[in-house]
Amino acid sequence: MYKRILLKLSGESLAGKQGHGIDSERLQQYAVQIKDLAILGVQIGIVIGGGNIFRGLSGSQKGFDRVKGDQMGMLATVINALALSSALEAIGQKVRVMTNVRMEPIGEYFSKDKAVRLLNKGNVVIFAAGTGNPYFTTDSASSLKAIEIEADILFKGTRVDGIYTADPEKDPTATKFTEITYDEVLRRHLKVMDLTAITLCMENKMPIYVFDMDTVGNLQRVINGEPIGTLVKP
Predict the structure, then answer these.
(1) pLDDT tens digits for 185-201?
(2) pTM
(3) For position 88, which CATH number holds?
(4) What are phi and psi of 180, to 5 degrees?
């Protein structure tokens, strides 16, 4: 059993069947799975994307200034963080939101020491607003936060059940890896996480486990060691 994890959640997945915004059913599913894990004593830090609301890079391709677009994306992650924290509070789970851009009282400004104290007291801690800087994705933010809070592993919950040789939604011949090294991910140009995120994890020996978060119960399964995803390691 892991003592402390960083869970990266996809904003797009939070949209559920709607395809945009926040799907209340998916939000509730996430909250219940996270609380069930916290009950077991696992300390949980969370980074959630904002792609269900706004994605800075795609915005810049449509004429938005890249810096302002990324700032809009950061605010989208704050909206998702508040939604998830509200869902967790509604089912009795202690939770705090910390932001990497000052915006009290919406969330506390991130401090490693405060975050670790909160985790040790049984709070789920949601880290919002990315890294606080433009040109960095929430993948990079999740890698950074996993390292900062000294997590045992970074779990990346996606809509795909692991890492494949190609996009399984586009290539039916794609085959799945059960384990893969950081070097091979980089060599094959696999779109697991962005280059900065992978490099951060590689340099700090932070293992990554990619799995399908949208199937109810999978978070518990990966914690129990069931091989349902792909492990990225040295």
Answers:
(1) 999 999 889 999 999 99
(2) 0.94
(3) 3.40.1160.10
(4) -155, 150
